[in-house]
TrEMBL record, chain A:
This is NitT/TauT family transport system permease protein. The chain crosses the membrane at residues 6-27, 85-113, 125-145, 254-275. It is a multi-pass membrane protein. InterPro entries: MetI-like, MetI-like_sf. Keywords: Cell membrane, Membrane, Transmembrane, Transmembrane helix, Transport. It comes from the Bacteria. GO terms for biological process: transmembrane transport. The lineage of its organism: Bacteria, Pseudomonadati, Pseudomonadota, Alphaproteobacteria, Rhodobacterales. It holds the Pfam family BPD_transp_1. One of its GO terms (cellular component) is plasma membrane. Its main location: membrane.
UniProtKB/TrEMBL annotation, chain B:
This is NitT/TauT family transport system permease protein. It is found in: Cell membrane. Keywords: Cell membrane, Membrane, Transmembrane, Transmembrane helix, Transport. It comes from Pontivivens marinum. It is a multi-pass membrane protein. Residues 93-266 form the ABC transmembrane type-1 domain. GO terms for cellular component: plasma membrane. The chain crosses the membrane at residues 29-47, 87-105, 117-139, 145-167, 197-221, 241-263. One of its GO terms (biological process) is transmembrane transport. It holds the Pfam family BPD_transp_1. PANTHER family: ABC TRANSPORTER PERMEASE PROTEIN MJ0413-RELATED (PTHR30151:SF0), ALKANE SULFONATE ABC TRANSPORTER-RELATED, MEMBRANE SUBUNIT (PTHR30151).
Amino acid sequence: MRSLVPILTVLAAMIAIWYAGAVYLNANWAYQQAERQDRVLTTSQLIAETWSQDRPRLPAPHQVATEIWETTVEKKITSKRSLIYHGWVTLSVTLAGFGFGATLGIALAIGIVYSRAMDMSVMPWVIASQTIPILAIAPMIIVVLNSVGMQGFIPKAIIATYLSFFPVTVGMVKGLRAPSGMQLDQMKTWNASGLQGFIQLRLPSSLPYLFTSLKIAVAASLVGTVIGELPTGAVAGLGARLLAGSYYGQTVQIWSALFGAAALAALLIVAVGLIERIVTKRMGFGR
Amino acid sequence: MIAALAIWVGGWWANVRLARITGNRWSGLAAPVIFGTTLLVLWELLVRALNVPGAILPPPSAIGLAFASNLPTLWADFVQTFVKGALSGYIIGCGAAFLMSLAVDRSDFLKRGLLPVGNFVAALPIIGMAPVFVMWFGFGWQSKAAVVAVMCFFPMLVNTVQGLAAADRMQSDLMRTYAASPLQALTKLKLPAASPFIFNGLKICTTLALIGAIVAEFFGSPTLGMGFRISTQVGRLALDMVWAVILVAALAGSTFYGVVTLLERAATFWHPSQRGR
C-alpha cells in the first residue's frame, strides 16, 4: 500500500503526457480542417478538436476508453466486433501454447538435470534457440503449416509454445538444482529411491523458480499468439484487430486492441501469481 | 531413413561418451557441436528420404546454397534492418533508459512508482505498437528504430534501477564517510555495483531489438530489409531464401549477444559470476 501513491502518480503523469502528445500529434490535421472551413482555432478549440478526431494519429485516452467500453460491454459477445470475442480467441491459443510450452520446458529440464549428456549437448542449443528471432519467422510457420493443411489454432499455439518453453526450462533447471549437496546426501542416507528424491526434494524446492519463470512464459506466450495472428489474414484475435486497424487507419481500434492485450497479459500474470500463492501456502511456505 | 537413425544413435553415443570425460575444456565445446551437426544431418537425410517438398521444409544444403548465392541481397537487408533499424533503436532505447534510471535512482518516490509500472509494461506485448509507429514515422528505418527503442526501454530501465539499488547499505555509508559527492558515489560505487544488472538488461534487449526491427517491417517497409524479405519470399513459397534470411538473423542475433557478453566480461571481470570459466 505504501507504493500506491507513487504508482498512481506515475500513471497520472503517463496519461498527462499522452494527452499532451495527442494535442501535439493531431494539431496539424486540426489546423488543416480549420483552414478549409475558414475558421481560426483558439487554443481551447484546438485542444478539443485534437481530442475528438475520428482517425487521429494518436487517440486521446478517453477515446480509447469509450471504444473499449463499446466493444466489450455494449456489443454482444458473439459479435465479430466484440473485443471480448477476439480476446477469447487469443486467450485460448495463449493458454494452449502455454500449457504445451510449460510441459515441454519441465520435461526438458528434468532430462537436463538427470542426464549429463543432455546437459552438455542440449542446453547450449536451448539458449541458442532464443537468439533466433522466432517472432520474425512466425508468418513462415503459419504459411507452411497452412500448406500442410493445419489452420487456425495449432500453428499459433506452436509459436506460443516455442516462446514459452525457454524461460520454463531455464528456471526449472535452476530450481531442480537448488537443493544443496547436503540435502541430496540426506536423501541418500534415508535410502530414498531416485523417484522419491525427485518428488520429495527436488520438485518442492524448484517450485519458487518454476512460478517465476511461468509468469515470464505466460507473457511470452501471449506475445507469440498475437504475432501469430497477424499473417492469418486478420480473421480473429487481438493481433488480427491490430492488423485490420493498421490497414484501415483505425487508430482507435489499434489502441483498444493494444489495451485488450495488455489487460489479458495482466490477467494471466495475476492468475499465475494467485496459483503460486495457493500452492506455496498449502506447502507451508506461506509468507 | 536408416542412415538417419544410425547417425542419430551415433551422435547420441558420442555425446554420452564425451559426457563421461570430465575436466576437459574441449569436451564442453564438442558436445553441442556434435548435437548440432547430428541435427543438421538428420534434417537433410529425412527431408531427402521422405521427399518433403521444398515449399514446406527445404534441406540445409539448399538453404546454404540460397545463402551463398544471394549474399549481396542479404547484406543489403542486414544493413537496412540490423544496422539502421535495430542497432540505432537499441542505442536510443537503452541510452534513454539508462539516463532515466539515473534520475529515478535519486528519488525514492519515483523508484517506488516506476518499478512496478515498468515491470508490468515490460511484460506487455509492446511489439503491438509497431503499426502505430509505422503510421507515425513512415516506412523507413526510423519507425523500426522507434519500435526497438520503446521495446528496449522498459526492461533496461527496470534492470538498471534495480542495479543502482544493489550497492550495500554499508558501502553507501562508507562513501558518505569519505565525503564523496553524489557524482563520485555514482561512478565509484553505484555504477560498478550495477553493471551486472545493466549488462543483463543489455543482453535481454539484444534479442528484443532484432525481433522488434523485423516484426515492424511486416507492417510496412521499403523494398528491402529482413522482415520484408521474409514476408515476400513466404508469399512466393521460396522457403530456402526465407531460411537463409533466418540464418542471417540468427547469426546477427548471436553475434550481437556475444559482443555484449564479451563487453560484460571485460567490464565486470571482478564479479563472482564471471569467475571460474
